[in-house]
Design a protein that fits this description.
Helix content is 41%, strand content 14%. It contains 21 helices and 19 strands.
Length: 589
């Protein structure tokens, strides 16, 4: 499948969470900020790319509340907005240099206002094309700050995953348009400006959307048609039933895990990184202390541990001597005046190296020193791996294979009721956790995941077949796949069922280095862009996208710049094999 540069992936999908970067140079151009690439993008991965409906809502907010040279970041809760404010102030101090490009903010220069979104009256509500105006107002919390501080605010948005979702922004814009239409019908045009929002510090009455902002992902007629199709054929429920759908999701996740886990032990989050963020925040609520990141993780996991609390130790190889280093760190903190270590964080398997940690060994160290063990099982996925025999907390990105359709974000955090920290963690979660999963996102997650237990086995077998094809080529120097990387550790967490396998992710490197990677990637006829766990095959030059400004640092842990990551999908086996063979054949001999 050839998807043009910048188009959403999958094509013609509202709220798609990936974007097409079909050539190696397109990925480099994106990282360098080339207008050729950025100007073509209609979507992107939501924690990295501020989606157009969110951009439009920001402009709507700025038009009403911002001072000159200010911009805004939008959040679904007051707590998130206040955390973002604190993050901007603290990180401005830590990251400021003469070359930083921003001035240190003074007290009061970063502030929060509340924006209440609701139809202005019953007539305006009746103009809601989808008839989905919720029973209570929606509150958006707007962090306003000097525009030169945007990179810091964006870090908070990216690391925590707690910004407003694209569907939430679209809903707000939709209600604003309904209000505007009512105002236009009810009052003379000369009074329109006077009918806008009335702002007070921390309290805002509903406003209307300026006509010049063209932002919704689809015209109103298309939204109406989409809603009709989704509901007429039973694929989606009305968003007012989101509470029931969230309960169904929590029960589905609990049912996929070990016995003893109940729906109340499952916490839904707006993104996978949000689940990781809440896990860390809850642990800090139990006690203060540094954490250890064991193995090379997805980039934002390490950033959360480093920036939101006392800091972290990074053991990036996640094997061999790193176990002894971990034991030494734990012992040193236990025997000195330093705070005891808070937790060990690891991925099983890891992204993108597909390493699996020795879970019994980590659990033994955690028990010996009284620390928590947090495991991200996104790459393995519930049907394939069971880490609750060892982990105090299991986090997962539901955006990936759980959803599969690449059109919604979500995450989950599960507490292990069988381990001693359970009650303290439940209490800590009660103090920090907020359900920020927007109602419409919950509806799509529930729909998409109904068949995930059936999809995963086919993805497992397809990915293994592709991995074996690549391993058989003399042009390939390394294939990273859980069956071939630390296999004895993966075997310990692999479920003992006939359908369990190794997941859909693999990474490949070539004997000829970057030139071969470029040829392979450019000739691979599948979707190409960020994300993974999709029902369709999706490839990316992972290190270029995730670590472009720190390639040498990543390389010392085996994450090389010429690595190609592939998430294998549900396509017919014959098509996949032919596609990958053709890409191999395109590499010059």
């Amino acid at each position: 499948m050839n998807v043009p540069l910048g188009e959403c992936v999958p094509p013609s999908t509202p709220f798609a969470v990936s974007v097409s970067l079909p050539t190696w140079d397109d990925n480099i151009g994106y990282e360098k900020g080339e207008q050729r690439v950025l100007g073509a993008m209609v979507s992107g991965y939501p924690r990295f790319f501020i989606a157009k409906p969110i951009q439009a809502l920001v402009e709507h907010v700025k038009d009403r509340f911002a001072l000159p040279m200010e911009t805004a970041m939008l959040f679904p809760s007051s707590a998130c907005a206040e955390q973002c404010t604190e993050f901007i102030y603290s990180q401005a101090q830590q990251q400021h240099t003469e070359e930083a490009g921003f001035s240190l903010p003074v007290p009061g220069q970063v502030r929060v206002v509340q924006y209440v979104v609701e139809p202005v009256n019953r007539r305006a509500a009746a103009l809601d094309a989808m008839k989905h105006a919720l029973d209570s107002p929606v509150r958006i919390y707007c962090v306003l700050f000097p525009a030169d501080l945007f990179p810091l605010a964006k870090q908070y948005w990216q690391h925590t995953g707690n910004g407003v979702s694209v569907r939430l922004a679209s809903y707000c814009l939709h209600i604003a348009r309904a209000n505007e239409k009512y105002e236009q019908e009810a009052r003379p045009r000369c009074l329109l400006k006077a009918a806008g929002a009335v702002a007070r510090h921390g309290a805002i009455v509903t406003g209307t959307l300026p006509a010049e902002v063209d932002s919704a992902p689809a015209p109103e007629s298309t939204m109406e048609a989409d809603a009709y199709l989704e509901e007429r054929f039973g694929r989606n429920f009305d968003p007012r039933y989101a509470g029931e759908m969230k309960l169904a999701l929590r029960r589905r996740i609990a049912g996929a895990l070990s016995q003893g886990v109940q729906a109340d032990d499952v916490y839904l989050t707006a993104t996978g990184m949000s689940a990781m963020f809440y896990a860390h925040q809850a642990l800090l609520g139990v006690r203060r202390g540094k954490s250890v990141c064991f193995g090379f993780p997805y980039i934002d996991t390490l950033k959360i541990l480093e920036k939101f609390g006392p800091g972290a130790y990074f053991l990036g190889h996640g094997e061999g001597a790193d176990y002894d280093k971990l034991a030494h760190i734990l012992e040193r903190h236990a025997q000195s005046d330093e705070e005891p270590i808070l937790a060990i964080f690891t991925e099983c398997p890891s992204n993108p190296l597909l390493k699996t940690a020795d879970m019994p060994r980590l659990r033994a160290l955690a028990d010996r020193y009284g620390v928590a063990l947090v495991v991200d099982e996104t790459i393995g996925s519930f049907p394939n791996v069971d880490v609750l025999d060892w982990a105090d907390i299991v986090v997962s990105s539901l955006t990936k294979v759980f959803s599969g359709d690449s059109n919604v974000m979500g995450g989950s955090l599960v507490l292990n009721p069988a381990l001693p920290l359970y009650q303290r963690l439940r209490t800590a979660m009660g103090a920090v956790y907020e359900d920020l999963l927007w109602s419409e996102d919950a509806i799509f997650l529930e729909r998409n995941s109904r068949d995930f237990m059936k999809r995963v086995p086919k993805i497992n077998s397809n990915a293994l077949a592709v991995a074996e094809l690549l391993r058989a080529s003399s042009k390939v120097s390394c294939v990273r796949h859980p069956k071939f990387v630390t296999p004895e550790n993966y075997a310990r967490i692999m479920r003992q069922t006939s359908d369990a396998g190794y997941g859909g992710l693999l990474s490949v490197e070539f004997a000829a280095g970057e030139s071969a990677s470029r040829a392979f990637y450019d000739h691979l006829r599948c979707c190409k862009g960020p994300s993974l766990g999709t029902n369709f095959t999706l490839a990316s030059p992972y290190t270029i996208l995730a670590h472009f400004t720190e390639l040498d640092w990543a390389a010392q842990y085996g994450v090389h710049s010429d690595l190609v990551r592939v998430s294998v999908g549900l396509e017919p086996r014959e098509e996949l094999m032919a596609m990958f063979q053709a890409a191999l054949d395109a590499i010059p001999t």
